[in-house]
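lol forgot to send this yesterday, sorry. struct tokens for the thing we talked abt
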């Protein structure tokens, strides 16, 4: 009969539980470095490799569990920037408040609003709408337009004047933007004066546009139509779509399209600068 002898060349380390009153279990752990054993059969030597190491531990031993590392502390520079932006937004809102959306602004008011906007734009950094166009989605309320200081509803563009010659009172102004349909509507609430003793007529004028993104932060709008809808006591009347002037009769300055740059944008505040230099400040509704 062949004789077989198994002789280890290296002794594997064995860990025994110090608790001798309990039974033991065997666990095998794999290690990258093999252990060599010598196998003798009828005087011939064969060598084998094993990659397991026997560990004996008590079945009732506690297995140590390491707590996960604590989360890294917040970036102090990012926190400081957030606080600075909040402070600059408050400064801008204070500069434009009480100006009746810009209709009551004088030269000093225009300069203060522009300086406050530039500070916020500088800290906020460039706006890239090519990767964040969805932030434009929604209905935005106009807080301030530097163009309204011209005392016309068109701002730096043709539009009806406000005042005694044409008794039009400007109410809230909104921009409604739909990034899927590319609709871009300018909405103005107006109060039209009529001869006494009739009450003023309240209307909502909607200037419908389509928009497209030019570059990373410029928006081009193309006019489509104007719709006027009475509100208040006359809200039951149907909306009226105003006819468009033929292109041949339209003034050269009335291009019915425009372009502006979004210079600051976050979840609730938007600043734009138009192709004719007007500064506008909006908040989301």
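and heres what i got for the seq, position by position
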């Amino acid at each position: 009969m062949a004789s077989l002898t198994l002789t280890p060349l290296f002794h594997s380390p064995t860990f025994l539980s110090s608790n001798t009153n309990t039974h033991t279990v065997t666990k095998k752990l794999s290690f990258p470095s093999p252990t060599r054993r010598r196998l003798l059969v009828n005087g011939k030597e064969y060598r084998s490799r094993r990659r397991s190491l026997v560990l004996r531990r008590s079945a009732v031993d506690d297995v140590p569990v390491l707590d996960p590392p604590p989360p890294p502390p917040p970036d102090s520079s990012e926190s400081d920037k957030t606080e600075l932006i909040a402070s600059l937004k408050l400064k801008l809102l204070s500069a434009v408040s009480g100006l009746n959306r810009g209709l009551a602004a004088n030269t000093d008011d225009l300069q203060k609003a522009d300086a406050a906007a530039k500070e916020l734009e500088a800290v906020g950094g460039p706006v890239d709408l090519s990767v964040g166009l969805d932030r434009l989605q929604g209905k935005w309320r106009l807080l301030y337009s530097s163009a309204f200081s011209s005392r016309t509803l068109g701002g730096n563009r043709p539009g009806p004047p406000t005042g005694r010659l044409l008794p039009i009172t400007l109410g809230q102004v909104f921009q409604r933007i739909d990034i899927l349909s590319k609709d871009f509507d300018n909405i103005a609430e107006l109060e039209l004066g009529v001869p006494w003793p009739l009450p003023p007529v309240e209307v909502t004028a909607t200037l419908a546009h389509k928009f497209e993104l030019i570059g990373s932060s410029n928006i081009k709008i193309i006019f489509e139509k104007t719709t006027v809808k009475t509100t208040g006591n006359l809200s039951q009347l149907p909306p009226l779509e105003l006819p468009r002037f033929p292109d041949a009769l339209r003034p050269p300055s009335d291009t019915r399209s425009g372009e502006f740059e979004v210079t600051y944008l976050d979840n609730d505040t938007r600043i734009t600068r138009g192709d004719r230099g007007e500064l506008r400040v909006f908040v989301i509704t």
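The chain has two helices and twelve strands. anyway ping me if u want another try
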